[in-house]
What does this fold into?
Amino acid sequence: MHATPYHLRLADGGDIPEIAAMSRCLIEVGLRGWTWHPARVARALQARDTCVLAAEAGGQLAGFAISEFGDTRAHLSLLAVKPVHQRRGIGLAMIEWLCESALTAGIDHFTVEMRANNFAARSFYESLGFRRQQYIAGYYQNIEAAIRMRRDLRQPAAREIRNFS
Ligand SMILES: CC(C)(COP(=O)(O)OP(=O)(O)OC[C@H]1O[C@@H](n2cnc3c(N)ncnc32)[C@H](O)[C@@H]1OP(=O)(O)O)[C@@H](O)C(=O)NCCC(=O)NCCS
It folds into this structure.
């Protein structure tokens, strides 16, 4: 059986409810409250320094990423792929798209935080050239620790990984 082809595009207003729901179910699961609610996703869509990227498969949202672009640093705020579409290279494609865009914008590194016990995400980012930078106790609501990871966009190693993928 062939997997449904996917493509990347910029998210729009019609994606807001599903991005917020995916944030709640796939990223904020187990935390108190809902911080990436629809109004916050809508603000991200309107912010000039923020890119909201969507991956679409079969006419449906398969994944998304929200990233902020600064002068020298880009920060990945959220990234998720629906379970049925995972391990098909969609997360990798979104990260590469964002890293290429950041590099073009003159940015030299990308950072991301994730729950310290999210070993799947840690393996994912490590496979893409991100390296552990910091352990931050209590980062999530003073309950859970985070790992901050960083990818240097101008390092040869990162370039080789991009060219290889
Ligand atoms: C992390 C996540 C975005 C990865 O997306 P994905 O589209 O499935 O990832 P890819 O198919 O592009 O994987 C690329 C590589 O990353 C690594 N990887 C991905 N998922 C992994 C997992 N669950 N366990 C170990 N390694 C993994 C593998 O090396 C993989 O290559 P391979 O499939 O050829 O072995 C996805 O699992 C997800 O949405 N998780 C829930 C939300 C989350 O934790 N987000 C990140 C924190 S904000």
The chain has a mean pLDDT of 93. The chain has one domain: 6-164. The helical segments are 16-27, 38-46, 90-104, 119-127, 156-164.
